[in-house]
Each structure stands twice: as C-alpha cells, then as structure tokens.
Amino acid sequence: MEADETHLDDVEVVEVDGADADLVVDEADADVTADADDAESSDEAESSEEAAEVIDPVAEFKATLRAKPGEWFVVHSYAGYENRVKANLETRIISLNMEDYIFEIDVPMEEVTEIKNGQKKLVRRVRMPGYVLVRMDLTDASWGAVRHTPGVTGFVGNAHQPIPLTLDEVYRMLAPDLAPAAGPAGAGAVGTGSKPKEVRVVDFEIGESVTVMEGPFETLPATISEINPDTQKLKVLVSIFGRETPVEVSFGQVAKI
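The line above is the sequence of Transcription termination/antitermination protein NusG; the predicted structure tokens follow.
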C-alpha cells in the first residue's frame, strides 16, 4: 500500500505571480479586440466595394450602344406601317444574306394613358409615327436592301448618302426614360425617370406655336393641330428630320411661346 501512495512532496506546485496573470489576461483581451477590428475593417471594405459597384444605367446603356457594330440610320415609312416595315426588312435581311451588314431594326415605342368614356387605359404605341431605326454598315448593297423594302419611302437626309445618328440621338430615341443612378444612397432603387404628370387646364388654340417641355422631343418647337379637352391632350406637329410629324402630348408637356 505504501508503494501506491502519492507523496505530496513529489508534486511540484507552480505559483503564478499576480502581475504575470494580469499580463496573460491583457494579451487575451488584445487578441479579441484585434479580431473585432479586423472584422469591422472587412465589413467596411465590403460596403465600399458594393457602393463602387453602383452602375449608372444611362452610362451603361450608352456604352452598350457604342460597343455594337454598325451605325444607326433613320428611314421613312408610311405612318401606321412601321412594324410591318420592320418585319419586311427582317425577312429581306435573311433572304438577301445581309446579316453581316444589317444588324438591327427598331421601332421606338411608348406607353401612354388614354382616357375614354371616363376610364383610363394604358396604351402602347409608336413614339415617332413614320420612322424606323436601322443599325447597319452602309454599303451599296445594304442601302439597296433597306431602300427597296416594301413600305420604306427613303432614308432621312441625303437620299444616297444618309447621315448616321449621333450616340445622343440614338439614346434619346431608344431609352428616353432611363434615369442616372442616385449613387450609394440609392443603390437597388434605380428609377425609370418617369412620374405621374400633373394635369393642368390651359387655354390653347389650333395653329398656335408651343415648345415641347418633356419627353423625347423636349425643347423642340411645335404647332398645335388638334385639342382634346376631355383627355387633356394636344396633337402637335413637330419637325423631325425636316418632316412634320404628329405627336400627342398632354397640356402640361408644352409651354406657350
């Protein structure tokens, strides 16, 4: 039994000085604080990266337009036949093997609210009656393919050497409702730029000259051809590419000259 007994004299007791114990605790606290600071710095870095990733939809759309091959041209068509001309030209591109020269046909559309019999109805319609946009490389062959498409009456500008649209002109026609991003504070809530228009009662006369104040024809002069008091809308004639084009606007979208 004496051989199995543990002698207290053989047990070494290590005493830790009070100052050393405090140092160990302080080091542990410092490690925890450092880890917390690293985590906070990481979160701040991620937030900064997210803020930097906010994209301006206007700039992005223009960059997309700029990167596409070809240039945009405008062709005349009979009013009301714009979408038919688009379909006819798309068919001709395939049948004439012009895929490498004519890339895209677009009929700009818009949504408006019409009021009939006291009821509002959302209607999608052609924004510029009588015009079709074509993105293409201009050659004699591609010019002929477009020009001789049923429903096309000619190119805007020089008949045989039409002038392409500028990037800003294309942007206004294809994406007039995009609004610039609001920055980090507005991330995730990029608007379309459109908002309900205030309806105002204004006295107008047929033949009166006005200035368009909103929309794709902003700042352009126009002449009133029709007045509809029930819907609070006007039909005005706007000169686009040297041709008078009827455009419907609300009373609040024009100003008297």
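Note on the example: The chain has five helices and eleven strands. The radius of gyration is 35 Å.
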